[in-house]
C-alpha cells in the first residue's frame, strides 16, 4: 500500500506543507517515516474559525432529512472504502488489519445511527392556561472544537464529526498527528456525501498551541476531547474562560473482577484477547484483574500461558494478533513501569521486554501480586500489560475496583445473579460489563465518571451533547 499525501482541510481546501512546520508520520511497525504533515499556524487557525462560524450559519438551517442523507451517504462510502482506510490505519497507528476493518464499520454504524436519530430530536409543549403557549426545543450548540487521539484513528474521528454534523453544528477537528490520514478519510466521506465544505474542518498542529487558540475564540461553543486526564483537566480550565460546554472522555484503569463461580477458562479466552487488542492502547482496556483467592493461581497461570502465545508483528500481515505500540514513547513508558513494579516485588509471569530491533513492539506482559503502591497500579499503563492480584472476598474486590479516581469502564465475571445486581449498582464507572467485554455500541452512551471525565459520546446522549435546550413562553 502507498501511504497517501496528508494535509489539512480548511473550507474544502487541501492545505499542504508550504511554509509550515511539519510533523513526520512514522509507521510504528518499521520506524520508517511515511509522510510529512503540515502543522497549522495562527493564520490557519483563524481561517478555520471564520469558516466554522459561517458553516454553523449554513448548517443550523439544514433539515433533519438533509443531515440524515449526508450521514447515511458517508456511512455507505466508508463501507465501500473499508479496505483502503483500514490499511491506512494499520500503516500509521499499527493496529492489525482485522481490528482496523472493524473500526471502519464502527464509524459507519455510528453515522447510520445518527442518520436516524436526527429525526427524533423532539421538543415538547407544556400545559398552560388558554391564551398561553410554552414550548421546549433543542437547537445546535454552535461551532465545536474536537480533539481526537491516535489509538482509534478511524472511530474517534467518526465520533467527533458525527455528533456535531447530526446536531446541525459546524466542527473544527484536530486529530492526532501520529495518524492523520485515517481522520482525513472519514471527513472526506462526509464531504463526498454532500456535507457543505464550510461545516467541517481538519487542522493539525502543536496540541497546546491549537487548543489555546481555538478555545480562546468566542466562536467556539463546545469542546469535545478524548485523551489523558492530565490534558483533559488543562482543557477544561481553558474552556471555562468562555463558558464553553465540554464533553470529556479521559483516562481509565479498567478493573476486572473475577469470582470463583465464573467459568474461568471462558473468562481467560475472552479477556486475554481483549487485553491485548490494539496492544492495550484502549481507554477501556481491562487492566487490573481483581481475582478471588481460591482461583487466583489458576487464573494467573492460564492468563500468562495465553499471553505468551499471542502472535506479535506487523499488523498488515496475516495471522498477527497484536501489532506495535503507536510511537516510541509508549514502549519506553511501559518498560519503566514494569521495571519499577518488579523491583517493588511484583512477579513477572511473561513478557516485560521489547521485541525486535525495529518498530515499537513490546511483548504481551503479565504481572501478578503487584504492590498497590507501584505506579502501574495507580496510573493508566495504556499498553499490553495485565495486572493480576488476589483478594479475599467480594467486599475487598469492590473496594479495589473503586479505589482509584478513575471510572471509565469496569468488568466483572460471576454466575451469581444477586451478585451481578450488586456489582451493577456498586461499581463506580460510566460503563460496566458483566460477563461480557462488549460495552460499546452506536446506540449506547460512551463515557466515564470521576477523573475519567463527564458527558457521553454515542447514543442519543452523544447527539444531545451538541444541542442546547430553549424554553419559549408566549402570552
- Biggest pleated-sheet summary: 7 strands, mixed
Shape, per Cα inertia axes: globular
Unreliable stretches: none
CATH topology grouping of the largest domain: Aldehyde Dehydrogenase, Chain A, domain 1
Q: Describe the oligomeric state of these chains in a short phrase.
A: single chain
> In order across it, which strands form the biggest sheet?
14-15-16-13-12-18-19
Task: Give the CATH architecture of the largest domain.
Answer: 3-Layer(aba) Sandwich
Ends apart, CA distance between termini = 65 Å
Strand portion = 15-25%
The radius of gyration computed from the alpha-carbon positions, rounded to a whole number of angstroms, is 23 Å
Mean pLDDT figure = 97
Instruction: Tell me the number of strands.
Output: 22
User: Structural class from helices and strands?
Assistant: alpha/beta
Helix content: 25-40%
CATH class annotation of the largest domain: Alpha Beta
Count of distinct structural domains:
2
CATH superfamily of the largest domain: Aldehyde Dehydrogenase, Chain A, domain 1
Number of helical regions: 14
Amino acid at each position: 500500500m502507498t501511504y497517501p499525501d496528508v494535509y489539512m482541510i480548511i473550507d474544502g481546501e487541501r492545505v499542504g506543507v508550504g511554509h509550515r512546520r511539519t510533523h513526520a508520520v512514522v509507521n510504528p511497525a518499521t520506524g520508517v517515516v511515511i509522510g510529512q504533515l503540515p502543522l497549522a499556524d495562527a493564520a490557519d487557525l483563524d481561517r478555520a474559525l471564520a469558516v466554522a462560524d459561517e458553516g454553523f450559519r449554513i448548517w443550523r438551517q439544514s433539515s433533519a432529512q438533509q443531515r440524515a442523507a449526508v450521514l447515511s451517504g458517508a456511512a455507505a462510502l466508508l463501507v465501500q472504502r473499508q479496505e483502503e482506510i483500514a490499511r491506512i490505519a494499520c500503516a500509521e497507528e499499527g493496529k492489525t488489519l482485522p481490528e482496523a476493518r472493524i473500526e471502519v464499520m464502527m464509524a459507519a454504524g455510528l453515522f447510520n445511527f445518527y442518520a436516524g436519530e436526527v429525526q427524533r430530536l423532539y421538543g415538547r409543549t407544556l400545559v398552560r392556561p388558554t391564551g398561553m403557549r410554552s414550548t421546549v426545543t433543542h437547537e445546535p450548540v454552535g461551532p465545536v472544537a474536537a480533539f481526537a487521539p491516535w489509538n482509534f484513528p478511524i472511530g474517534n474521528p467518526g465520533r467527533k464529526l458525527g455528533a456535531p454534523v447530526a446536531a446541525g453544528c459546524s466542527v473544527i477537528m484536530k486529530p492526532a498527528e501520529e495518524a492523520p490520514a485515517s481522520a482525513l478519510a472519514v471527513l472526506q466521506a462526509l464531504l463526498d456525501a454532500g456535507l457543505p465544505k464550510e461545516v467541517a474542518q481538519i487542522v493539525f498542529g502543536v496540541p497546546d498551541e491549537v487548543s489555546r487558540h481555538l478555545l480562546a475564540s468566542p466562536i467556539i461553543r463546545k469542546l469535545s476531547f478524548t485523551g489523558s486526564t492530565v490534558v483533559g483537566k488543562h482543557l477544561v480550565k481553558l474552556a471555562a474562560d468562555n463558558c464553553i460546554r465540554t464533553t470529556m472522555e479521559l483516562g481509565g484503569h479498567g478493573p476486572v473482577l473475577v469470582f470463583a463461580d465464573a467459568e474461568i477458562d471462558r473468562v481467560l479466552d475472552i479477556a486475554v484477547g481483549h487485553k491485548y487488542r490494539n496492544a492495550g492502547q484502549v481507554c477501556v482496556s481491562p487492566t487490573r484483574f481483581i481475582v478471588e483467592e481460591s482461583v487466583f493461581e489458576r487464573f494467573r497461570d492460564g492468563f500468562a500461558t495465553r499471553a505468551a502465545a499471542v502472535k506479535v508483528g506487523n499488523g498488515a500481515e496475516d495471522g498477527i494478533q497484536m501489532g506495535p505500540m503507536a510511537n516510541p514513547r509508549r514502549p519506553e513508558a511501559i518498560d519503566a513501569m514494569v521495571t519499577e513494579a518488579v523491583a517493588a516485588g511484583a512477579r513477572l509471569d511473561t513478557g516485560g521486554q521489547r521485541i525486535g530491533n525495529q518498530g515499537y513492539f513490546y511483548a504481551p506482559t503479565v504481572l501478578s501480586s503487584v504492590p498497590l503502591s507501584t505506579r502501574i497500579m495507580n496510573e493508566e499503563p495504556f499498553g499490553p500489560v495485565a495486572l493480576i492480584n488476589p483478594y479475599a472476598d467480594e467486599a475487598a474486590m469492590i473496594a479495589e475496583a473503586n479505589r482509584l479516581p478513575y471510572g471509565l469502564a469496569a468488568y466483572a465475571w460471576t454466575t451469581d445473579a444477586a451478585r451481578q445486581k450488586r456489582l451493577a449498582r456498586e461499581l463506580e464507572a460510566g460503563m460496566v460489563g458483566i460477563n461480557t467485554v462488549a460495552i460499546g455500541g452506536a446506540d449506547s452512551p460512551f463515557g466515564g465518571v470521576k477523573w475519567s471525565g463527564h458527558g457521553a459520546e454515542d447514543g442519543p446522549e452523544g447527539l444531545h451533547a451538541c444541542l442546547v435546550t430553549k424554553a419559549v413562553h408566549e402570552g
